[in-house]
């Protein structure tokens, strides 16, 4: 028994701390110690969007809303839990003006 690699992608510069499938099962979202969030097309691992400075410290967790395909939540060592709309990030690596965190908790 062995596994064949179908696709691969390297979009982070440090350890990936979480990976989650969106509710519609079309996208993978990863979070990393490099403080970034990456959205990939599930079937091809094509880069769809990236938020390079999603947190000011390491990201520890990422979760997807099971009822809203476009909503993800991240938690980081900066003490913040942030909710993101994955449609509102641009691929050039800049956070669009409308992509500010929707909701923030500070511990």
What does this entry look like structurally?
- With 107 residues, this protein is mainly beta.
- The protein contains no helices and 8 strands.
- It has a 4-stranded antiparallel sheet, with no helix packed on it. Strands 5-6-7-8 form a 4-stranded antiparallel sheet, with no helix packed on it.
- The protein is globular and about 40 Å long.
What's the SSE blueprint?
Layout: E1 16-21, E2 27-32, E3 37-41, E4 47-51, E5 59-64, E6 71-76, E7 80-85, E8 103-106
Antiparallel strand pairs: 1-2, 2-3, 3-4, 5-6, 6-7, 7-8
Task: Briefly characterize the structure.
With about 110 residues, this protein is mostly beta strands. It contains no helices and 8 strands. Helices cover about 0% and strands about 40% of the residues.
Multimeric state of these chains?
A: single chain
Helix percent reads under 10%
Q: Structural class of the secondary elements?
A: mainly beta
Main beta sheet: strand number and arrangement? 4 strands, antiparallel
Which residues sit in consecutive blocks of at least 5 with pLDDT less than 50? 91-107
Mean pLDDT: 79
**Per the principal axes of the C-alpha atoms, what is the gross shape?**
globular
Strand order of the largest sheet: 1-2-3-4
Intertermini distance: 47 Å
Counted by DSSP, the helix tally is 0
Q: What percentage of the residues does DSSP assign to strands (E)?
A: 35-45%
Number of strands: 8
Q: Taking Cα atoms only, what radius of gyration do you get, to the nearest Å?
A: 13 Å
Main traits of this protein?
8 strands, disordered C terminus, mainly beta
């Amino acid at each position: 028994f062995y596994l064949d690699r179908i696709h691969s992608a390297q979009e982070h510069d440090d350890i990936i701390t979480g990976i989650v499938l969106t509710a519609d099962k079309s996208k993978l979202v990863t979070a990393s110690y490099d403080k970034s969030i990456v959205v990939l097309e599930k079937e091809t691992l094509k880069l769809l969007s990236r938020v390079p400075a999603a947190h000011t410290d390491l990201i520890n967790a990422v979760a997807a809303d099971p009822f809203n395909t476009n909503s993800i939540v991240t938690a980081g060592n900066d003490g913040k839990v942030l909710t993101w709309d994955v449609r509102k990030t641009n691929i050039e690596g800049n956070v669009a003006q409308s992509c500010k965190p929707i909701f923030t908790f500070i511990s």
